[in-house]
Amino acid sequence: MVQQDGKAEERRRGAAVEEREAKYRREQLDHLLAGMGGVEGAARAALDEVRERWMGPQCAVLDFLLARLKAQRRLAPKDLEPFLEIGAFTAHLSGYLATTHGMRGYCGDLDCEVVKRSFSEVFPRLGLNASNLTAVRANAACLDFANDSLGLVFCFSTLHHLDDPVRCLKEIRRVLRPGGVFLCAREPIQP
Fold it and tell me: Which of the pair, 156 or 100, is modelled with greater confidence?
C-alpha cells in the first residue's frame, strides 16, 4: 500500500510540473505573438528576429544533418518519415521540414494547443505549411508511439529541461526504428 501511495504521489507531482510547464509555454507563445502582432513594423521586426535567431541557424543544422545522411547513408528526407519533434513549442522546425522537404511528422509538446495555435498564427507569418504535420501532446518520458515507428526524432533546447533525461533517451530509442536518427541540440543551437 505504501508503494502504491508513493507512485500515486509521484504521478500527481509529475502532472503538476507538466501543467506548470504547459502554462509557461502558453504564456511564452502569447508573448511571442504580441511582439509579432500590432503595428506592421513591429511585427516585421519580431518576425525577422525569429528567423535570424531561431529558425535560420536551427534549420541550417537540420539541412546539414539531412545532407550528411543522404551522402553517408543514402537516406533521403522521406526515408526518415514520420518524424517527431519533441518540445516543439512553435513547431517552426517541423514546419520547415514539411514546407521545404515535404516531410510528414508529429509536433510534440506538453501543450498540444500551443502547437495548434502556432500552426494557425505563427506558420502563416513565417511562410510555413502545416498540411503534413500533426500536433500531439507528448511527454518525452512516455511517448505515445509504437516501438520502432519513427525514422527521425529531434529536439532543440529541450533535453536539458527534462527531469529524467536518461529515461527520455530510452523512450526515444524505443520509438525509433532500426537505423533511425535522433538529433539533439542545446541552447541556442549547438549540437
Answer: 100
